[in-house]
Amino acid sequence: MDFYIILMTVIGVLLLIKLMSRERKKVPPNPPGIPLLGNINTLRPDTMLSTMRKLHKQYGDVFSINIINQHLIFVGGYKTIYELLVKKADVLGDKPYFFTQELLRNSGVFSTSGPLWKEHRTFCLISLRSLGFGKRNIQTRIIEEIEYFLAEVENHHGDPFDIQDLVSKSIANVISALVFGKRFELSDPTSAEMCNILNAFFRSTIFHSPIYIFPFLKHLPGDLFGSKKLMKKFDRIFDIMCKILDEHRSTFDENNIRDFIDCYLKEQKKKNEAYKEHTFSDKQLISTLIEFFSAGLETTSTAIKWGILYLMHNQEIQKRMRKEIENTVVSGRLPTLEDKPKLPYCQAVCYEVLRLGNVTPTTAPHALKHDVTLNGFVIPKEATLFIDLDSINMDPEMFPDPFSFNPERFLSQDGKVTGTEKIGAFSMGRRVCMGESLAKMELFLFMTSLIQRFEIHNEAGKPLPSLEGTLGFTYTPQSLAASYKKIY
Fold first, then answer.
1. Residue 383: helix, strand or coil by DSSP?
2. pTM of the shown model
3. Which residues are registered as beta bridge partners of 387?
4. PANTHER family annotated for this entry (predicted)?
5. Residue 350 among known ligand-binding residues
6. pLDDT tens for residues 127-136?
7. CATH assignment of 2-486?
């Protein structure tokens, strides 16, 4: 009996200490949930954006939601995000294991962490820069693709059509030029197949289903979450990339580097000669190529689509852009990056598209090396972090009347571009989007060229397409049916 009393006393003291420790650690608040399932209802794609905005308004920049005992921490607000991703960047650890790693066979750059991520991210940046990535000489390839793009728009002779597939194929060709050293015909079935698979992936509701957080659910009988169907589609992309890689290898010349694949094959050859084991495998290359296409295609093409949609809704802004272009760019040629400083209003329109288009409202998940204190809350090591970029873009203190399309918010009184550094489009810190500079180039050149050549109008007799988007991993327009009247 005495032993039992002592044991119960010890257990009671330990529980009290644990409880007091929890009280001392101020954990992020979370909304009430459903027993066992927690806050799973917050992930519904049709309401998630509005739900997250309400939770930020109620709880502040840092709050948590619990999904079947999995703690998901959402970090919002420019200052708080900057504090975490820049000032406290060292606390960010390996990426948590989510379903996207399954699709990429646990390889690549964006979906990996640690030494593998660091080595291959550095290699990718060096290689892409050597190919002109982020530099002005890549605009030749972009403008070449824009000419094909505009010719295809003209082929519709002003008849209304949904331009979304054409935009995707055109942006895919810019990426193809960098990584494959060639472009696909806009009618090419292989290019169309890859674009369709990747577009479907980014629009998929899988990002808002339990399997995204708990990949082991793929082993359940049937295909409740559509994961098996998606994995088969990604197997098809792997097959396409393998074929392209084989073609490259058969014509590879290390003294004549044509594209990113050649850069990789050259580095792979060096590693084979120097080491028994290394990470520059064919599987790693193929996963990286898929990531390039996924990130480069989806985010930029979606931004352009939002730009077209907002200009359909704002004819006066469209006219003002065109007037600025006509006053600056010599008739008969397309706008270039050299014209950009003289086109501040067009720049402001593009920045407003990046803000209000809100292509990636939330980043991919992050993990921590250890507990971290943020805004007075202790975020535990085992938690999964999501950076809420939407909370920056729609912050009324930073951007008054945030839901209105107003390019002039990025123009000073003397007409110069200002305030663009606060846009939450490409994240920040070490995980900032590698393709930021290319994406901005493409958006500016495609938008100004399209407006220079065509007037964009709504389909006659029909209501304007909705400004409400569809949320998958990215936030995309529902429809973009419009007519394009040629100016010259």
1. coil
2. 0.89
3. 75
4. CYTOCHROME P450 306A1, CYTOCHROME P450 508A4-RELATED
5. no
6. 888 887 766 6
7. 1.10.630.10
